């Protein structure tokens, strides 16, 4: 239970930081970029000091199959630190050098901004899983838990432009859901075809028991049927529904808080005009 709470807190913290970065004041963008670069240096030092090999579980949640299947990734104990070093230094450098033009481009384009964050996170998670990073980290760096944060961002952007209903969030959330899950499908297809491992690779799952029907379905590794049932169907039919639903939850929270804050602000009371004339 404690691990799950830690994963959610870490995921929402990272997602909030990455989603809201273009909308922050310049001084805060600068500070975050410097802190990110410093974190990269810290991970580099930790990687140099790490020795030996690491093994980490890679968990795959299959919508049409069992809840969790586990494989094992093995890599140098320093490798995931070097992955984090590269990610932090690249993001920090981009923020320091291109922060202003990036902010001007991304801040008004919230769907594009959130989608690019999700694509980046997908690549980072794949690299972390291949480098046998701790499971808490790989679970936190993923697109599933980012949906409420994306919905909150869309709601905040609508409020700033005068909008303010959940209905306004449905279309951008559907667009976001399919752009994100379409990229996950692409990664899954490549990982499965090339047997690259990670939870995106479904090629090892040739026997999939389904509790709902009580049957076990057999797949040929890398076959079209396996890809359809374990990659295409979940990512393009099931997870978009989850993304929109949880995105609306995040958006509704922002809209509710905004409405509460607005009601608490007292209306302007017009001052009475001063009496004209003087004494006497």
Chart the SSEs and their pairings.
Layout: H1 2-20, H2 26-49, E1 53-60, E2 69-76, H3 79-106, H4 110-130, H5 135-140, H6 147-160, H7 167-193, E3 207-210, E4 215-218, H8 224-264
Structure in words:
With 280 residues, the chain is mostly helical. The chain has one domain (2-263). It contains 8 helices and 4 strands. A two-stranded antiparallel ribbon has the order 1-2. The chain has a two-stranded antiparallel ribbon with strand order 3-4. Strand 1 and strand 2 form a beta hairpin. Helix 3 runs antiparallel to helix 4 and helix 6 runs antiparallel to helix 7. The chain is globular and about 55 Å long. Mean pLDDT is 88; it is low at 267-280.
Q: Which geometry do the CA atoms define?
A: globular
Percent helix range: 55-70%
Intertermini distance: 79 Å
Order of helices and strands: HHEEHHHHHEEH
> How does the helix and strand content classify structurally?
mainly alpha
Supply the number of structural domains. Answer: 1
**Strand content of the residues, in percent?**
5-15%
The largest sheet is: 2 strands, antiparallel
User: What average pLDDT do the residues reach?
Assistant: 88
H/I helix tally: 8
Strand neighbour order, sheet with most strands: 1-2
Backbone CA Rg: 23 Å
Q: In total, how many beta strands?
A: 4
């Amino acid at each position: 239970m404690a691990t799950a709470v830690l994963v959610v807190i870490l995921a929402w913290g990272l997602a909030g930081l990455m989603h809201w970065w273009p909308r922050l004041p310049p001084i805060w963008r600068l500070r975050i970029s410097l802190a990110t670069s410093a974190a990269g240096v810290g991970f580099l030092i930790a990687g140099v000091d790490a020795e030996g090999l690491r093994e980490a579980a890679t968990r795959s949640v299959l919508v049409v199959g069992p809840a969790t299947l586990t494989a094992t990734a093995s890599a140098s104990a320093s490798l995931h630190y070097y992955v984090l070093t590269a990610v932090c230094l690249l993001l920090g450098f981009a923020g320091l050098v291109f922060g202003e033009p990036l902010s001007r481009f991304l801040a008004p384009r919230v769907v594009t901004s959130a989608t690019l964050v999700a694509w980046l996170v997908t690549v980072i998670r794949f690299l972390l899983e291949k480098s046998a990073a701790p499971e808490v980290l790989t679970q936190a760096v993923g697109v599933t838990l980012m949906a409420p944060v994306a919905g909150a961002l869309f709601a905040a952007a609508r409020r700033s432009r005068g909008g303010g209903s959940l209905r306004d969030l449905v279309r951008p959330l559907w667009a976001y859901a399919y752009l994100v899950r379409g990229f996950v499908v692409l990664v899954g297809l490549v990982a499965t075809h090339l047997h690259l491992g990670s939870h995106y690779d479904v090629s090892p799952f040739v026997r999939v028991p389904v509790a709902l029907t009580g049957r076990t379905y057999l797949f040929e590794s890398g076959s079209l049927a396996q890809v359809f049932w374990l990659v295409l169907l979940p990512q393009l039919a099931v997870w978009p529904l989850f993304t929109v639903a949880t995105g609306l939850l995040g958006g509704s929270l922002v809209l509710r808080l905004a409405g509460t804050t607005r009601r608490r602000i007292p209306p302007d009371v017009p001052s009475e005009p001063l009496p004209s004339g003087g004494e006497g």
